[in-house]
Amino acid sequence: MADARYDVVGIGNAIVDIIGRCDEALLAKIGAQKGSMRLVDADEITRLYAEMGAGVEISGGSAANTIAGIASFGGRASFIGTVANDEFGKIFAHDIRSIGVTFTAPLASGTAPTSRSLILVTPDGERTMHTFLGISTSLGEKQLDLELIRNSAILYLEGYLFDEPDAKRSFHLAVQTAKSAGRKVALSLSDGFCVDRHRAEFLDLIRSGIDILFANESEIKSLYQTESFELAAESARNDTKLAVLTRSGKGSIILGDGRTVSIAPEPISEVVDTTGAGDLYAAGFLFGYARGMSLEISGRLASLAASEIISHIGARPAVPLQQFARDRGVIS
Amino acid sequence: MADARYDVVGIGNAIVDIIGRCDEALLAKIGAQKGSMRLVDADEITRLYAEMGAGVEISGGSAANTIAGIASFGGRASFIGTVANDEFGKIFAHDIRSIGVTFTAPLASGTAPTSRSLILVTPDGERTMHTFLGISTSLGEKQLDLELIRNSAILYLEGYLFDEPDAKRSFHLAVQTAKSAGRKVALSLSDGFCVDRHRAEFLDLIRSGIDILFANESEIKSLYQTESFELAAESARNDTKLAVLTRSGKGSIILGDGRTVSIAPEPISEVVDTTGAGDLYAAGFLFGYARGMSLEISGRLASLAASEIISHIGARPAVPLQQFARDRGVIS
After folding, report:
1. CATH number, span B6-327
2. Subunit contact B57:A53, Cβ cutoff 8 A
């Protein structure tokens, strides 16, 4: 296997987040389940936007957040995703490149706008998302940069992309390409409802070719249709080489190589906005793992990155994570 | 004089702020003077944006921030300004309406985009702005809602609008309309360089029809071309009914009715981003003054609002200012 030019290449929806505060009453009124992500159409996103308070626009997208986090740690990272030739598309491309990520996709022409996600943040810091998938699902096989995939030590995929048939096909081609080149493949389950929609296909993919599986408690329980986190975790251990499972305030566990490594959550003074916590956890872990660090250190980097992201609004790091981790003595 | 339906109507540039961190070296490289606002063309804004790190997009605009702040205090506020039918225009209209401001302008069609300002925030919290004036300067006389002006106790104008001949003419018509209806007129000088560009006209306007003049130290010194703040302040006292002069960390003074009222700065733990400090100071003062509160209390509300806005990114209040001021016992 040739040396990889990149530590990680991510494939995911390229999304701009519109983040606003909301109270519990508004969630009840619109019938939203707190902490979930729901796909909505153009009419519904317009209606929900009108209900919401003043917002802040920040680049987002689950795998894109992870890739930005890896670059912030000093990792060599690249991203494959589609944006339109509109204001939000220009913002997305600028922001991801400004942090040093290789992002070669041109602004796509067409009628669909750049994808956006309305993120309602309740006073407890939890986020509830409504995503209007515009052009980001137009990720056909011809848009895949296979050379980039062959040149990356790890291919990282976001489960959300399974929601669109075109993107799903690209997903499978990307996995085959990475495997043939001797690379590792990582998958994030993204969301419990996303798992519900694609359970059988996710299980097939995980059992046949995923090296590293990222999931939170509700996602892994949904995948194995059990109320027991312990049972779900043991199933994941059997199905993948490495299962990385997060449990919010209870920390996380990493199962693999016949071991179970527990990672304590990082202490934090105030949770401002949990948007991106899972994405940045994956960033820290993948950066450490790609650089050959131990599961313990990779997990610690994961936990550190998550703690940074929930201390402010938005799902992209506010400070360079490399310095953040150095200041805490985790890397040199 | 009939009772006013609105406490304040503001006229200004409708702008979306693109806020990003930057170091002192970048300011030196692009030759920017820290703390200033410079107008740039489409090419230059594109070049500067490429130099800047990842950004956050938040509705802004000087007078628009002030008006949003007045609404946040529970005041009846309205805004006159122009946005285009693009993503930034929709964001601006949504955000200002979501806080309860009357904003009736339709999304304008035309080739110019919604105006935007690149705001570079240095580690000390100071902001340096580069503004690309798109459609917001298309504020012709026919776009002025004269009925709205007649129905507002105070007309508030941002000095920046003097940079465009069309908008300047609208400005004078708005002042005449307000005066004829027996209303008060307030003006913010906006920026030292803006004063340099229009000194004679500003002085004419101030001496002929401004009831309340807002300026910071560098603006008032520039207006009267003196290095002495005390001399400048005495000149302002002679030229207007009420001069409200801010001095950053040194607090502010209000000169009028033969009195000089000193307002201490509000203690604050950390200055995150000074964007909007002057705008929100004006909001607190105008809200108090329009409601018949004393100069002391109006000044205290001004100082409180400024302290809230510099404690976070962006120039719009993150919490309702009415509650913020109630919690501190300044209003009931």
Report:
1. 3.40.1190.20
2. no
Look at residue A2 in the predicted model and tell me its pLDDT.
Answer: 59
- Domain boundary assignment for chain B: 6-327
- Structure tokens that stand for A72 in this block: 């912030």
The answer to which of A40-44, A129-133, A166-170, B113-117 has the lowest mean pLDDT is A166-170
Query: Where are the alpha helices (H) located in B82-139, listed in sequence order?
Result: 87-98
- Separation CA B122–CA A208 (nearest Å): 50
Q: Are strands B6-11 and B77-80 parallel, antiparallel or unpaired?
A: parallel
Longest dimension (CA), chain A: 55
Q: Do B94 and A316 make contact, defined as CB atoms within 8 angstroms?
A: no
Return the minimum-mean-pLDDT range out of A33-47, A86-100, B104-118: B104-118
Model pTM above 0.95: no
Instruction: List strands edge to edge, sheet with A115-121.
Output: A37-39, A127-132, A115-121, A15-21, A55-60, B55-60, B15-21, B115-121, B127-132, B37-39
Query: Is A55 at the interface with chain B, CB within 8 A?
Result: yes
Q: Which residues of A touch B99 (CB under 8 A)?
A: 53-54
Contacts of A52 in chain B (CB under 8 A): 98
Is the Cβ of A313 closer than 8 Å to some Cβ of chain B? yes
pLDDT at A126 over 90: no
Q: Which residue of B has its CA nearest to A98?
A: B53
- What torsion, rounded to 10 degrees, do the Cα atoms A292, A297, A300, A306 define? -10
Chain B residues in contact with A313 (beta carbon < 8 A): 56, 313
Q: Which fold has domain A6-13+61-86+95-101+138-327?
A: UDP-N-acetylmuramoyl-L-alanine:D-glutamate ligase (3.40.1190)
HSE toward the beta carbon, residue A13, CA cutoff 13 A: 31
Distance from C-alpha of B264 to C-alpha of B262, rounded to nearest angstrom: 7
Nearest residue in chain B measured CA to CA from A56: B58
pLDDT for position B109: 76
Task: Kindly provide the ipTM of the predicted complex, given to two decimals.
Answer: 0.85
Whole-number pLDDT of residue B2: 59
Span of A115-124, A175-184, B65-74 with lowest mean pLDDT: A115-124
Residue B165's Cβ-count burial label (10 Å; 0-12, 13-18, 19+) is exposed
What is the mean pLDDT, run by run of 10 residues, along chain B of 332 residues? 86 94 91 90 91 92 97 97 92 95 83 92 89 87 90 96 86 95 96 90 93 96 96 96 94 94 92 90 98 96 96 90 95 92
Q: Which residues of A touch B113 (CB under 8 A)?
A: 87
